[in-house]
Structure formats: structure tokens, C-alpha cells
Design brief:
RNaseH-like_sf, manganese, metal-binding, 198 residues, alpha/beta, nuclease, five-stranded mixed β-sheet, Nucleotidyltransferase, domain 5
């Protein structure tokens, strides 16, 4: 069972991103603020949920959150500032858009760039521990997947409907054969063995 908040004193936003390891498309991030006593047993890390469950949870999150926002950073911006800074920027943009400002931030992972001098806590595997981070992971993932599905219509050879821009063998082979699209991150090495296969 996931926990509602990390601390009780301040209005707390959970943040997470999606698409960091992709070869193509933007990185998306979301910020979510739930009521302090919020409970939803169905919420979990987006990677543990099926696409159908993520899509079913999205309107529930948006309806029940005190505030939520989703933002993105383009492939061009990623190439300019690198993917780590782009992930921070996407989260900062989402925090900027919250109708209720956060006074405390919890972030999935082990690193974060401070936002407006607001206290924050980095939580490794936080999307499997805190409801607001899990919700942010679901929003970031579903909005990004939808975005990639639309791009896929213009670039069917890259199989984005299936891989969402991640470096599958089919996606890599298409890049090697056909070259890069305007949506590819040009600073990412297509044949880099460190890139995970999804």
C-alpha cells in the first residue's frame, strides 16, 4: 500500500518523468498534489500497470488531485542541455503550472535540481512508495505515450506506436536504415550498448 505524503506540515507535490531513455520525442514530467489523507489502493508505479489501467487511472487522478500539471521538454532542448537537465526542466515546468503552489516536493529518483528554494526530498523508487509520485508517473507516461502515438502516424517506419521512442531493435534498425527524424535526440548514440532494450 502506497503512502499519501512524505511529511504533513506543507502542501506536497510528487514529481516524476517519462521518456528519459528514449531515442525520440520529448521527455514529459508531471507534478501532483493530493489531499493529505488521500487513499487509492489502485495507484502504483506506472511501470507496474498495464496501459489500460494507466488510462483508467488518469481521469481519476486528475479529478481527485488538489492540483496537477504535465509539461514536456523537446528533443531539440534535450540535445541542447542534456537529458538530465531536461528532466529537471520538465519537472520545474510542471511545478510552474500547478494551480496550487507546492511548498514541499518529493521526487522519484536520487537527484533533483532545487526549485524556487522549496524544500525537496529525492526518493529512490518513490513511484512505488508515495501516491503523488505514482500518480505523476502515470500522468507523465500516458501523456507522453499519446504524444508519441500522434507522431507515429507521420513516421510509421520507426514503430513508435509500439516502442514510444524507446531503443528497441526495430527502432534502432529503422534509424540506421532511414536516418533520424526531426523528433530524434541527435546527441543520443543509436548503437550505444548502454541503452536498455525495451
Amino acid at each position: 500500500m502506497l503512502i499519501s505524503t512524505y511529511q504533513q506540515q506543507f502542501i506536497e507535490a510528487g514529481c516524476d518523468e517519462a521518456g528519459r531513455g528514449c531515442l525520440a520525442g520529448p521527455v514529459f514530467a508531471a507534478a501532483v498534489i493530493f489531499p493529505a489523507d488521500y487513499c487509492n489502493p489502485l495507484l502504483n508505479d506506472s511501470k507496474q500497470l498495464s496501459e489500460k489501467k494507466r488510462m483508467a487511472l488518469r481521469p481519476i487522478i486528475e479529478q481527485e488531485a488538489l492540483a496537477f500539471a504535465v509539461a514536456s521538454v523537446s528533443a531539440e532542448e534535450i540535445d541542447s542541455i542534456n537529458i538530465l537537465n531536461a528532466s529537471y526542466l520538465a519537472m520545474h515546468r510542471a511545478l510552474d503550472m500547478l494551480k496550487t503552489p507546492a511548498a514541499y516536493i518529493i521526487v522519484d529518483g536520487n537527484r533533483f535540481k532545487p526549485y524556487n528554494n522549496i524544500p525537496h526530498e529525492c526518493i529512490v523508487k518513490g513511484d512505488g512508495k508515495y501516491l503523488s509520485i505514482a500518480a505523476a508517473s502515470i500522468l507523465a507516461k500516458t501523456y507522453r505515450d499519446e504524444y508519441m502515438d500522434k507522431l507515429a502516424l507521420d513516421f510509421p517506419q520507426y514503430d513508435w506506436l509500439a516502442n514510444k521512442g524507446y531503443p528497441t531493435i526495430k527502432h534502432r534498425n529503422a534509424v540506421l536504415e532511414l536516418g533520424l527524424t526531426p523528433h530524434h535526440r541527435k546527441t543520443f548514440r543509436i548503437s550505444d550498448p548502454q541503452l536498455k532494450l525495451f
